[in-house]
Amino acid sequence: MRIIHLLAASAILLVSGASLAQHAEAAKAMNHGGQGDAHARNNPEKQEAARGRGSASMAGSNGRGDGGQGDGVLWLTDASAFKRNGKGSGRPAGDKPAGGGRMAGMDKDGVPTRRVWLNVGGNPKTARPVTAEESALVQGPDGNTREIAVEPHGGPYNVKFPTPSQGSYNVYFTRRALARDTLNITLAKAEVVFASMGHGMPKDVAARLVVPRTEARIPVEIVRERQDKETLFTRLNYGDEIVFQVLQAGKPVQNARVTFTSGQGWSNSVQSDEDGRATFTVIRDYYPEDWRLFDKRHRENYLVSASFSTPEAGEYLGGKYAATRYTATLSGAYYPGMADYESYSSGLMVGTAGLLFTGSSVWLYRRRRVKPYQEVRFDE
Amino acid sequence: MSECRGRSTSRIRRAVNNVDLQSFRFWFQFTAFVLFVYGGYLAIDLGNSIPMFSCGYNREGRAGVCYLLPLQHQLARPWEQLFSAAGIAVLTGFGLFFLWFIVLNKGWCGFMCPLGTLQDWLTSLRKRTGIRYSLYGEKPFNALSWVKFVLLALMILIPLGIGGGWFSHDMGAPFCQICPGRVVLPLFTGDTTQLTLDFSSVSGLVLTGLGMFIAGMFLIGSFIKKRFFCFFCPMSALHYLIAKPALLKLKKDGETCTKCGNCFNVCDMEIRAIADDIVKKDAMTDDCTLCLKCVAACPEPGTLKVEFAGLKIFESTEEGFLKRMNKGAGCDGHSH
Ligand code: SF4
Ligand code: SF4
Ligand code: SF4
Fold first, then answer.
1. Is the dihedral of CA B49, B55, B56, B59 positive or negative?
2. pTM for this predicted structure
3. Which among A187, A224, B268, B322 is least buried, having the fewest CB atoms inside 10 angstroms?
4. pLDDT confidence band for A253 (50 / 70 / 90)
5. Domain spans in chain B, listed from the N-terminal domain onward
6. Is A44 helix (H, G, I), strand (E, B) or coil?
7. A355/B212 touch (CB, cutoff 8 Å), yes or no
8. Does residue B46 contact residue B63 with C-beta atoms inside 8 Å?
9. Chain B contacts of A336, Cβ < 8 Å?
C-alpha cells in the first residue's frame, strides 16, 4: 500500500523537479552530490537559477525525446541491448544490478570478465547496437591502461575484458571523422564495476577503489563525481543528485552542452560551469502497474553526453580542418532507492506490536498466576 | 626456587578461583561490546567469520562480521558455482569460523557476543526496577530446545534453495532478516536503516515484518527472561555441532557433586543437566553459553572446572564460593 502511495507521490513529483529533490532528501540517509545546490532544492525559482549555472533536475526541461543528444550519438554500456530491450520497460528480463554479475563471465583461466557494447542513439530506450572496428582502451583499478583490439565480425561492437581484481574499470572508445572543415572527435566511455564480496575488505582499500580516474591518452572525457561515502556497492537512486565534470586533456571545459537522458528517454541539458561541472537530479521513471511487479533491483541506464567546439585546426588523414568538435559520452545505471520500497512507520508499528504483544502476554500470564484464591474472595 | 615458583603458582590459582566473576564478566563483556560494535571506527577488521553476532548490518561500527551473514550469502550462489570455485570460498570461510570458534568454544556467547551482552544488560536493568524475572519451566524448555536447530537448518536450506532456483533472491539471508541483531545492534551507532519493512516483495515484507516483530519480542523477552533469545539462536546450535574439538571446556566431576542445585539456580539458560547429570564429564550442553556462573556458584572443590587445552584455569572451591556468596556476586539466580 505504501509503495502505491509512493508511486503516486512520485508521479506527481515528476512534474516538479524541486519537490522531487525534497522527496529524495526525506527518502533516506542518501548520498548527496552536495554540490552547493542544497538550498535551491526547495525553491523552484532558485532551481531555475541553478540550472543556468550548470545544475538541473531532469524533470521539467526538455522532456521526452532524444534530449538533443542526436540520434547519431555513440555510447558504451555494460547492459546488453538484447537484455535491455528484452521485455519492455516493466521488468526487463534478467536485469540484475551491476556488480551482481551483469554481462559477467569468466575466461578460460577462471578470471572474471566483463563486456561492454557500443550503442547509437541519444535515447537509451531506443538506442541500438552498432558495428565498429576501432580498438578500445581499458583502464583497470590499478590505473594501468591496455588496448583491446576488437575483431571485425560484422555483429554489434562489443569488448570483452578481464576484471582480475575488484574495482571500477574505465572503457574508452574513440572515433575521429572529418566532416567538411571540422574534425569530429567522439569519445564513448563506460565505467564498469566489478565487485564480489564487500565483507572484510579494509575500508581504505574500498575507498581507493571508487576514486574516479582519468586517462591521459583520452582527448575528452566525462567524469562522474562520486557520491558521499560511495563504495563499489553504492547504487544511484531516484532523487539522487549526480555531478559530472567535462575534461579536455585533463582540464575542465566551461560552457559545454551537457545532456542527461534517463532510461525511459527523459532528458535535460545544461551548460557546464567554470569547473566543467554539470549537476542533475535523477528522476524516477519506473512505474510498474502493480506493486507486486515492483523489482527493487530494476536497472535503468542513463546516458550523459557533452559536446563543444574549439578552433583547433590541423590535418587528419590528409584532409585539412579548421575547427574541432568534441563529443563525450558516459553511461551508467540507477535503481530504486530504499525510500521507494521501505517504510519506517510500518516497521516501527510492527516492532511496537511485537513489544506490546510480548509485554501484555507476560503481564496477563502473571496476573492469572497471582490470583489463585479467587474462590476464597468469591466466598466473601 | 622451585618451591617459591610453586607457591606463586598456587597463589595465582587461588586468586583466579576467588575471582569476582560477575564484575570480571561485566567488564570483559563491556570491552568486547565496544570492540565489536564500535571497533570499525578504529579501522579494526577481524574478518567475516566471527562466531557470534557482530552484526554485519552495523556497517560503520562493526569490527568483524557475524559468520551467519556471509554463510547465507555464499550458500545462495548458483549451484554450478557453489559446487566448483565458490565452494572453496565457502570452505575457507567455514575453516576460519572454526578456527575462531575452537579457541573459546561457546565462551563467545558468554563473554563476547554483543547480542548476548545486551540481553545481560537488559537483565540488569530489570533487576534495578525490581520486576520479577520469568522462566521457561522444564516442560517448555524441553519442548522448545529444538527450535534453534530448525532455524539453523532453514538458514542453510533456504539459501541453497535460492541457488538452486526454487526460491527468490528476495529471501536472501533469511535468518538475518528475522534476526533481532540486525534491527537492534546498528542502533548503537545511530543507524536506523534496519527499522523498516521492505515492501518490494511479499517474501521481503513477511521476513522484515517478522524481523521487526521479533525485535520487539526480543526487547521485552530479554528484559523478563535471562538470555531469552540465546535459547533460539542458530549460532548456538552451530556451535554445539562442532564443539567437540574446542579448546575451552566446562568439566564436571560427578563423584563429588552433591546435587545441591546451586549451579542450576544461577544458570541463565535454565540448564537442569548441569546439576542433575553426574555421569557426563563434558558439562557443556547445547544451550550453555559458557558464562561460568555455575563454576562460580559451586561450593564443592573441583566439581566444576574450566579447562583450556587440558589445563585447568578456573575451578570451584569452597573459599571462592564463600567469598562470592558474601559479596552476593554470581548469586542472582532463581530459586525453586
Ligand atoms: S542479522 Fe543477525 S545473523 Fe545476520 S549478521 Fe547480523 S547478527 Fe548475524
Ligand atoms: S547464543 Fe546468544 S550469545 Fe551466543 S551467538 Fe547467539 S545470541 Fe550471541
Ligand atoms: S551451564 Fe554453567 S556455563 Fe553453561 S550457561 Fe549455565 S551457568 Fe553458564
1. negative
2. 0.76
3. B322
4. very high
5. 25-239
6. helix
7. no
8. yes
9. 200
